[in-house]
Amino acid sequence: MTTLPFTLLLTVLLALLPTPAPTPAPTPAAAPPPGRARPLPAPLHLLRGWHPPPTPYTAGHRGVDLAAPPGTPVRAVADGRVHYAGRVGGRGVLSLTLAGTALRTTYEPVRPLVAAGDRVTRGQLVARTEAGTHCPTPCLHWGLLAGDTYLNPLLLLPHPTPRLLPLPRDSD
Fold first, then answer.
1. What's the CA gap between 12 and 17, in Å, rounded?
2. Which of 23, 89, 107, 144 could cross-link with 94 by S-S, CB 3.0 to 4.6 Å?
3. Would you state the torsion angle of the CA atoms of residues 33, 141, 67, 157, taken in this order, to the nearest 10 degrees?
């Protein structure tokens, strides 16, 4: 009995939405949407999420930690240019400025395979993870900045195409 009002409400809301243009079904080998790629091979395993600090100088987690054993290939998430590739505080760091934006992604601990000033393309192998002390288990710390403001890098990941499923039929 309680599903009827919900079903009616959902039907009315869906009728008010514009009808999207049909999209072809993705193939298993389909590439991520243009402009975005994963930094590590799928599936991504999030060890620690993004927790921005309340002010620029207080504690927080200014990126995300993704499980990645040493030697894991790291790929550019978008076209861009290498801002920095080298060591900071004993750790390998790579920073890419994304083409046409003020966004910069950071990756550590890594062994960069590109040099400052190099152009990179989405999906290009740009580094390999190294052993480090940032996480209790091997990981890649992935960050995203807009100027001096840290953002959640997970926003750069390709998003799956949403699909509506049929409502289950009530048993009579």
1. 9
2. 107
3. -10
Nearest-angstrom CA–CA distance, 115 and 82? 7
How would you label 19-37 residue by residue, b for 16+ Cβ within 10 Å and e otherwise?
Answer: eeeeeeeeeeeeeeeeebb
**At 83, which helix (H) or strand (E)?**
strand 80-88
- Maximum alpha-carbon separation in the chain: 67
The Cα 149–Cα 158 span in angstroms is 22
**Rounded to whole angstroms, how far apart are CA atoms 21 and 10?**
20
Sign of CA dihedral 89, 37, 52, 117: positive
Q: pLDDT tens for residues 72-114?
A: 999 999 999 999 999 999 999 999 999 999 999 999 999 999 9
Secondary-structure percent of the chain, ordered helix, strand, coil, rounded to 5 = 10, 35, 55
